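Running co-folding for shikimate-3-phosphate.
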Amino acid sequence: MSGHGTPIPMTSSKCGPLIGEAHVPGDKSISHRSLILGAMAVGETKISGLLEGDDVLDTGRAMQAFGADVINHGGGNWSVHGVGVGGFMEPEGVIDCGNSGTGVRLIMGAMATCDITATFTGDASLNGRPMARVTDPLALFGTQAYGRKGGRLPMTLVGAATPIPVEYATPVPSAQVKSAVLLAGLNAPGETIVIEKEATRDHSERMLAGFGADIKVEQTNEGRKITLQGRPELKPQTIQVPRDPSSAAFPVCAALIVEGSDVLVPNIGLNPTRAGLFETLRDMGANLEYENLREEGGEPVADLRAKYSPDMKGIDVPPHRAASMIDEYPVLSVVASFATGTTMMTGVKELRVKESDRIAAMADGLRACGVTVEDGPDWWSVEGQGPQGVKGGATCASHLDHRIAMSFMVCGMATQNPVSVDDGTPITTSFPIFEGLMGDLGAKLSKE
Ligand SMILES: O=C(O)C1=C[C@@H](OP(=O)(O)O)[C@@H](O)[C@H](O)C1
Ligand SMILES: C=C(OP(=O)(O)O)C(=O)O
């Protein structure tokens, strides 16, 4: 539940080489889905390696409020006794999803076809984000939503008592929207179909199949077509959550810009719907190797080795890659600042509706650090200053956004003068061990 407390400024100063291994926490997307699907299965799902960040903990509390039994056994081991598809109870209180778009949108989907009513809220960031992208398709099942102007939280959803299955083409590239519709489709009798023009992260499809749902994915002329049969009995699973490539991005990018660095980030999933940043960095000339490339649970996994890369060049990042690296643009813009030449990022308007307007937040902060940044509604560009050329010396606003706070902390590791953020507390939403992990590699981070 970030954003409810007192802001704590944080500063990052130029450091010596970053050296060592960085064991990043569990994947946030898979952690949310493990708890939600576990709550919709019949019996006990066992989860190890769960990300214990605020976003996921809020989802765990929400599943408890809907009637599942969510138990923390310590050491990242959790279990969920599910209530079955359609078995959610009506919560007594308001569901507070804190800072988490994934949490609130997936949970709305999961309860939308149950004959119950629930009210959702979040922190100031989440309460400013658009929810109509989810409540519009949920209305097709028969769900009613009553929120603030512009489809904002707090919002009450009245679940459909007699849900009808839906066919829906997602108008925005969003795994959250796709997943909300699929989760709602679980309790609608018949076939629910989602078509997405551009492929987004496919964890819901893979995990629904793992839990025993009848789900089919095909490539058609209109895009990726996902067909789900409603009313399955989901079977509880034993899940080992892989490490989060979006968190791995921070030690990887830090190593690329800090002189003399050599960092190993073991066991990172390279699912093609998530790995766009690493491909982009390699296209820029980063010294980034995939070591011990293997397959685990049907997905490519590697140990990432990142070394200081003073010869990186700015590139045009292909827009078709955007969905596979959507959360990584803020830290990419930091790396781009230390490259030579211009990095152009297009097809990225979704960045404007994340925890913050991420283009505006990064552009303001990088400009204050002496970097030339230009932007438009759906694009932005960063003028590289060369490996030692970024001045820094600014305090940047993190806007209740963990990725913005961590990106500026990475930036300060290589700038001529320290970089601060006005509030480092949002970092705990996705990467609660960030400060200690980066400190162990040699970063100089301090809180005021
Ligand atoms: O489905 C998910 O787990 C997520 C989807 C993405 O959001 P959108 O679906 O809004 O693109 C991403 O930004 C978020 O961090 C996690
Ligand atoms: C966009 C993000 O998360 P969410 O939408 O779940 O708040 C993120 O983690 O970068």
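Result summary
The longest helix spans residues 28-40.
The chain has a mean pLDDT of 97.
Job closed.
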